[in-house]
Input
Amino acid sequence: MRVAVLGAGAVGRSVAALAGEFGHEVVAVADSSGAALDDGGIDVEAVLAAKDETGTVGDADPADALEADYDALVEATPTTLGDAQPGFGHVERALERDRHAVLANKGPVAERYDELRALEADSAGEVRFEATVGGAIPAIATIEDREPEQVPAVRGVLNGTANFTLTRMAAEGLGYDHVLAEAQDLGVAEADPTFDVEGTDAALKCVILANLLAGGGFSLEDAEVEGISGIPGNALELAAEDGRTIRLIGEASRDGVRVGPRLVPENGTLAVSGTMNIVQIETRHGGRMNLSGRGAGGPETATAVLADLRRLSR
Amino acid sequence: MTDDVDGDSRAYTVRLELVDRPGELLNALRPIAENGGNLLSIFHERGNITPRGHIPVEVDVECPPDRFEAIVEALTNAGVNVIQAGAERFAEEVVVLLVGDLVEADLSDTLSRIEDGSAATVVDFAFAAGDRNGGDASARVRLAARRGSVEEAVAGIRGVADEKGLLTVEPAGSEVGP
Output
């Protein structure tokens, strides 16, 4: 498949770097300030080296990447809330041109799901978004495969930064601020960790899941969200005395989305450690399924994008 | 808790909690007889009052298995608090944490309002004070709720906690229940 990659952060770079190995050809890579284009296939290694050196992937206008001769557009620009631009506009353009759109960017799928599906209905292209939920974990495909109407609810641990923080607090008896600073030193938490520790990131993922289950209708403002910054060490101690621990759990159903710190059995399924994620899918006839794995990271998330490309090329 | 008596009837143990008021015991026993139950024994624990001021009563009843549900239902309809019936525990337990300035929020008032508002009973309670730097305190509350009403009990706690500016850490959806 001929692929254009928009966004050259960790995920976009990994998609471009791995595309060849998965049998795809990259015809365009763009970041916010430039683009590299070649209908004959770009030299990905050289383009990424240029990005490291100069800060951009190339001299071409990023807007030209949208008009390149691709089969599928990979939208891997940073997630934005509200109107979800510029990601939404990129996907819109691809669909207008009857091309497929594969999103790693959560914004358009969480904030403008219904519009996205309406654009898809008028296009010969399809929209896929496996990479928006749970990194390498095939959550979306599993739900689609089981029929969304057969899935009453999905819950899980969907943010590695929050999970790392709670795991370390419980294991070391350290306070929230101490562990968060440590996470920042390790590169597990961003300099501004608000998006992760206040539950916004997990909520966006759950909104996407709720949209999938209900066929749309949800955005971030419908979610009930509580973060972990208010959890003191003594709460984890009281939980541990009772064989439990605390995890930031997101829950999605047709009734809505809730994200917040929850009690889980200390050695239970949902108590994954460190930066791991888990998605727990309830099915009407097949019981409960648990999928755990790496929920973030460039190559990990890129594998979800590549799985979507594979589905589209069948 | 269930013993075979003969082919048709079985013995069941029903645990009740009665308000300490004249006539309450009779009021509780009438639905049993009226629904075909044969009273085998009554253990009235007058000296052992529950934290809510109720008196636990253990009743052994003999009846055909298909009548037992009706007896329990009649007791419930008569306003009798059935804690446990037969081999089936009617009290489900749920644990929640409350975080915040619990002293400021009047802890005992918080607990009694949780009990009043949700038909749940606080069976265990643990408290951890905040640190010297003014950090938040935490409390672990274990509640017994009527079967099927755990979610309602948790929602009740959430309501009281929200009003008092406390953070509730409730069980994850899949972990509610036994």
Remarks:
- Chain A touches chain B through 31 residues (CB under 8 Å).
- Residues 282 and 288 of chain A are 5 Å apart (CA to CA).
- The radius of gyration of chain A is 20 Å.
- The mean pLDDT of chain A is 96.
